[in-house]
Design goal:
alpha+beta, five-stranded antiparallel β-sheet, globular, disordered N terminus
């Protein structure tokens, strides 16, 4: 799922952020009802085997034994003792997961997780990820960015370009690239070899404008003078997860022998599961913004073991694009244990043979539909190359324990809100359809499945 929108609606007043953001980090632990929470930034979702094992060890030794992936491809440890910060930092530094104490919360970089694997993109953006991360950490000014400021590096397929990041870099054919700011529908060309420099210049300009004007802002979209003039509709890009299963190469990247893609229920997996994941990979793990993992080069014969460990390995189930907030007992504001209730509803839908919601073929390749290639007058890719990850049916669904709706997706989605007596099911977002329906826990699975089939 794309990160939760945190900006004003078009035409609304631009917020003046009078306080620093409260995003947790690896050094700034966040107190929660189930213990302290640490968020470890993983630019591009990239992890080595050694790093994955170190996170599993830390979760067992210091936390509740589980790891939680986020909508930005980062990892959270929960249930931590409030005094364990120094030991956690030491463990992270030892494996290269804390390259800068001053910049650790601003390393928010999402990237197309299938780049270089399936032949659908124009560039293997992982090189951009590594360069951007290194230059961010080396730039003193970058420490002034909000912990919510997001960079997106899209290989041209339109998956992470749909996230409305603060700065988006989109690869094009023949080495071309576009830079897009905020939610602008237009981008500007970037000279070859200057892609990362252009991204950094945009972020620095944002901070310069804030300093000169004396304003406070967390996002570039909150500074109108940096955006193109006139109406800028949000582009209709895919933003869907890679399918679970086998990632097959299309021949464009012969040096990569495909790999595997797996999903995690609500992004959570225990330490033992993480060790199974590390054992299956061929050197690198790419956590996705859709709370899954891509294992480049991993052989298909590892899928049964991953399925037995509790990972989702078959596409098209009701669990596709289903998310939930923390809920009880981790959040005192929640009115229900939403993850337990949501899991029962999703399993019930699967048991009754509810139609697949993802429109994903059995090969494990993302569905194709919207073709994209080149950069026409609008500045965004529109025609030619099949865009991977475009779902053909079914809305995403998100369970929330309170009205804050933490972690909900962008666009249209099925909102399942705990009321204390059950749940209220609504189709939310742009062009919302139909009234809210109040249901009991027993009625929820059917109501959610019906709402996800909404097409109007």
């Amino acid at each position: 799922m794309p990160p939760t929108p945190d900006a004003t609606a078009p035409g609304a007043a631009v917020p003046d952020r009078g306080r620093a953001d409260a995003c947790p980090g690896a050094l700034r632990l966040h107190p929660a009802d189930d213990g302290a929470l640490a968020r470890v930034r993983l630019p591009g979702g990239l992890l080595t085997v050694r790093q994955a094992l170190a996170l599993a060890d830390a979760a067992e030794a210091l936390g509740d034994g589980e790891l939680e992936t986020t909508s930005r491809g980062n990892v959270q440890l929960r249930g931590l003792a409030s005094h364990c910060g120094a030991e956690l930092a030491e463990r992270l530094r030892a494996v290269g997961l804390l390259p800068s104490d001053t910049h650790e919360r601003v390393r928010n970089i999402v990237a197309s997780p299938l780049a270089g694997l399936d032949g659908h993109g124009f560039a293997d953006v992982q090189a951009w990820v590594r360069e951007l991360d290194a230059r961010l950490c080396a730039s003193d000014w970058a420490a002034g960015l909000s912990g919510k400021f997001l960079f997106a590096l899209d290989d041209g397929r339109g998956d992470v370009a749909a996230f409305d990041a603060d700065v988006t870099l989109i690869a094009g054919p023949d080495g071309s690239a576009l830079l897009r700011l905020g939610r602008a529908a237009h981008g500007r060309p970037v000279p070859a070899g200057q892609e990362v420099a252009a991204v950094l210049d945009a972020a620095r300009t944002f901070l310069d404008v804030l300093r000169e004007s004396g304003r406070k802002a967390w996002h570039l979209r909150e500074v109108p003078e940096l955006l193109p003039a006139g109406p800028v509709p949000v582009p209709a890009l895919a933003g869907a997860a890679p399918a679970v299963g086998v990632v097959r190469t299309a021949g464009s990247f012969p040096e990569v022998a495909g790999g595997l893609s797996v999903g995690m229920r609500f992004g959570r997996a225990g330490a033992a599961q993480w060790r199974e994941l590390a054992g299956a990979c061929a050197g690198e793990i790419r956590l996705t913004p859709w709370r899954g993992a891509v294992l480049p080069g991993a052989p298909a014969d590892r899928l049964p073991a991953l399925a037995a460990a509790g990972f989702r390995t078959a596409p098209g189930s009701p669990w596709e694009r289903a998310t939930a907030c923390t809920g009880l007992p981790g959040c005192a504001k929640s009115r229900a244990d939403v993850r337990a209730d949501a899991a029962r509803a999703l399993d019930a839908a699967a048991a009754t043979g509810s139609p697949p919601v993802g429109g994903l073929p059995a090969t494990g390749l993302p569905a194709t539909g919207l073709p994209v290639t080149g950069f026409p007058a609008t500045g965004l890719p529109t025609a030619g190359l099949p865009m991977a990850g475009l779902p053909t049916a079914g809305l995403p669904v998100h369970w929330s324990g309170c009205e804050r709706r933490c972690g909900h997706p962008a666009g249209r989605w099925v909102d399942v809100l705990a009321t204390g007596q059950g749940y209220r099911v609504t189709v939310n977002g742009p062009a919302a359809a139909g009234p809210a329906v109040d249901v009991t826990n027993e009625e929820m699975a059917e109501a959610v499945a019906e709402a996800r089939r909404t097409t109007k």
